[in-house]
Design a protein that fits this description.
CATH architecture of the domain at 72-451 in chain B: Alpha-Beta Barrel
Strand order of the largest sheet of chain B: 5-4-3-2-1-9-8-7-6
CATH superfamily of the domain at 72-451 in chain B: Methylmalonyl-CoA mutase
Number of helices of chain A: 5
Oligomer: heterodimer
CATH topology of the domain at 72-451 in chain B: TIM Barrel
Strand content of chain A: 15-25%
Shape of chain B: globular
Strand content of chain B: 5-15%
Number of helices of chain B: 23
Largest sheet of chain B: 9 strands, parallel
Chain lengths: 137, 549
């Protein structure tokens, strides 16, 4: 693994959910804030997302799901990153996620979870922090 | 003052005919005080511009509504979209909704079903039964409609790429109940073009998808003539962030594409066009939304007449379902959502919708609970029975603002449709991302206005409070995936597998040619071939579409 680009992130849509308005908005807002953003497009498997993260050498991965499958899919991406030899890439997530799931997701290794109505500045700051925390490869 | 001859003409023809067939809901509509509410407000002496642009309800160009008596004759259909978990659970919810006075069913399928995967497919991980009901085979469909008489209810099914398969299953369940296909009523969404730009449940590339849709038009016109073969949907385009004008333009452009494809395949316009239905979003900008519905109705009538030469009035009428805008629901202070939904539902009714789904207040958190679904339905019932807006037709007509906005939306939507045509048509504009970019840009701009506080969302960027109380949530039983897979195994063990293999092989051969695939699919589902098996055969022949990202 090379030295990850400090401002390069991947936004991924795991599972079968097609609601990508939020994911595309975050991608564009991060670009406007100076990040380089790779967006996977919808309907990607956890393994595809992990492979893309490694290949694009990103400093963080953001996931979006609005279909209720986050409890299965977000941890699956964390696992897939480990298997792909990139356990240090931090994973953030967002979508329609009930509050009581957030604790479990954080225990499963997701560093931040954003729910509807979170100001974009909060999200951008979290990505910045996540990218900086990651130890150099 | 004597009545205008055109008004008299309408009263003696369209109106009289309609009243003869369907008397109005009440002999006399009155206000609190007993005074009679007029059926229709018109200018005292309608001029040529009025007659050309507005005319009368049930008369071209249908700006004022598709039926001569509108809600005085019959209220809109209150149709609540529902479905989750297993077929048995969803069946219970449908029977609850029917008991509560809902007048039509609307089935939500889970994502694996919508994308043609069986519940045991690796791609289905985590999604089984989540956003809708899981259907793998006819056995699930039999459970879903257990004790629901398909000859009496009309059922709308939100199913697109595999619509042919689910339609075949529905007709097969009807036959088992003793209901002939010609008496089956309902709608399949079957609108794949908007899946590529906004909703995401595509399977095949556009060309074979359009073939399947045309196959359905043809098969239904011969077998299920009372079934709406498509619901051309702006709803999801708007949810993805489009403007009102874009919603109308992209939806009607998709509609024109389906019509042209069917004409090219040799279908008779005035036979299939009467079964086209539409589906729009009702957002919070009340007046713009009312104008949007009226503009869409007029523009479609004109397109059908001028571009395609449709003659039958039924081919010219844009009949539509409406759902309130899910994207406007906030996770904060969820009771405020009831107010938003009320405004949006009012827009749909003032805009002349044929059926309506009202969202529940808790949907920014999870699927709605039974209690919040009831409140959503009650919202429609209050509008219908207490607000008085159903008692007089198209009540906002003639407002300077509404009429100029209706004209503007029609004009701008038509300009965008023309632009798509000049750029090579809808399919090309999807493939090169033109439509997706337009929607994305509009969505981004809107969201940034909220972020900058230029657009106020109550409870989100203004009037916030500290909230501790969590709303009660509906949880999908996590066991559903396991039980669904077990049921699927049972089906596969109890059917005639040799016969299934033969029928799937016949389907594959037919798909390679140019025949109508509906009869082959119907044969497959009756032998309990699964949705995934049928779709995999078609994937093999047609290939798969992949999002460009």
């Amino acid at each position: 693994m090379g030295t990850a680009q400090r401002n390069r992130v991947l936004i991924g849509k795991p599972g079968l959910d097609g609601h990508d308005r939020g994911a595309k908005f975050i991608a564009q807002a991060l670009r406007d804030a100076g990040f380089e953003v790779v967006y996977t497009g919808i309907r990607r498997s956890p393994e595809e997302i992990a492979a893309a993260a490694v290949q694009e050498d990103v400093a963080a991965v953001g996931l979006s799901s609005l279909s209720g499958a986050h409890m299965r899919l977000f941890p699956a991406v964390v696992e897939a990153l480990k298997k792909a030899g990139a356990p240090d890439i931090p994973v953030l997530g967002g979508g329609v996620i009930p509050e009581e799931d957030i604790v479990a997701l954080k225990e499963a290794g997701i560093v931040e979870i954003f729910t509807p109505g979170t100001p974009i500045d909060t999200i951008i700051s979290a990505y910045r922090a996540a990218c900086e925390k990651q130890p150099p490869g | 003052m004597p009545k205008h001859p055109k008004l008299t003409e309408w009263e003696e023809n369209e109106l009289a005919k309609s009243l003869n067939r369907f008397p109005e809901r009440k002999e006399k509509f009155t206000n609190h005080g007993g005074e009679e509410i007029p059926r229709l407000g018109t200018p005292e002496s309608p001029d040529d511009a009025y007659l050309e642009k507005l005319s009368f309800p049930g008369k071209y160009p249908y700006t004022r509504g598709v039926q001569p008596t509108m809600y005085r004759g019959r209220l809109w259909t209150m149709r609540q979209y529902a479905g989750f978990s297993s077929a048995a659970e969803s069946n219970k919810r449908y029977r609850f909704l029917l008991e509560q006075g809902t007048s039509g069913l609307s089935v939500a399928f889970d994502l694996p079903t919508q994308i043609g995967y069986d519940s045991d497919d690796p791609m289905s991980l985590g999604e089984v039964g989540k956003v809708g009901v899981a259907i793998d085979s006819l056995a699930d469909m039999e459970t879903l409609f257990d004790q629901i008489p398909l000859g009496k209810v009309s059922t709308s099914m939100t199913i697109n790429s595999p619509a042919a398969v689910l339609l075949a299953m529905y007709v097969a369940v009807g036959e088992k109940q003793g209901v002939a296909p010609e008496n089956i009523k309902g709608t399949i969404q079957n609108d794949v073009l908007k899946e590529y730009v906004a909703r995401g449940t595509y399977i095949f590339p556009p060309k074979p998808s359009l073939r399947l849709i045309t196959n359905i038009f043809q098969w239904c016109s011969q077998n299920t003539p009372a079934f709406n073969t498509i619901s051309i949907s702006g709803y999801h385009i708007r949810e993805a962030g489009s403007t009102a004008v874009q919603e109308v333009a992209f939806t009607l452009a998709n509609g024109c594409t389906y019509v042209q494809t069917a004409i090219d395949a040799g279908l008779e316009l005035d036979i299939f066009a009467r079964r086209l239905a539409f589906f729009f979003n009702a957002s919070s900008d009340l007046l713009e939304e009312v104008a949007k519905f009226r503009a869409a109705r007029r523009l479609w009538a004109r397109l059908m007449k001028d571009r395609f030469g449709a003659r039958d009035p039924a081919s010219l009428m844009l009949r539509f379902h409406t759902q309130t805008a899910g994207n406007t629901l906030t996770a904060q202070q969820i009771d405020n959502n009831i107010v938003r939904v009320t405004i949006q539902a009012l827009a749909a009714v003032l805009g002349g919708t044929q059926s309506l789904h009202t969202n529940s207040k808790d949907e920014a958190h999870s699927l709605p609970t039974e209690e919040s679904v009831r409140t959503a339905l009650r919202t429609q019932q209050v509008l219908a029975h207490e607000s008085g807006v159903a008692d007089t037709i198209d009540p906002l007509a003639g407002s300077y603002y509404i009429e100029s906005l209706t004209d503007k939306i029609e004009r701008e939507a038509l300009a965008l449709i023309d632009k798509i045509d000049e750029s090579g048509g809808v399919v090309k504009c999807i493939e090169d991302g033109f439509i997706q970019r337009q929607i994305e840009n509009a969505a981004y701009q809107y969201q940034m206005e909220i972020e900058r506080g230029e657009r106020i969302i109550v409870g989100v960027n203004k009037f916030q409070i500290q909230e501790d109380k969590k709303p009660p949530l509906l949880r999908v039983n996590p066991e559903v995936e396991k039980t669904q897979v077990a049921k699927l195994d049972g089906v596969k063990n109890n059917r005639n597998n040799q016969q299934v293999t033969n029928l799937l092989a016949r389907l594959e051969t037919a798909a390679q040619g140019s025949e109508n695939l509906m009869p082959y699919i119907y044969d497959c589902v009756k032998e309990y071939a699964t949705l995934g098996e049928i779709c995999n055969v078609l994937r093999k022949v047609f290939g798969e579409y992949k999002d460009r990202g």
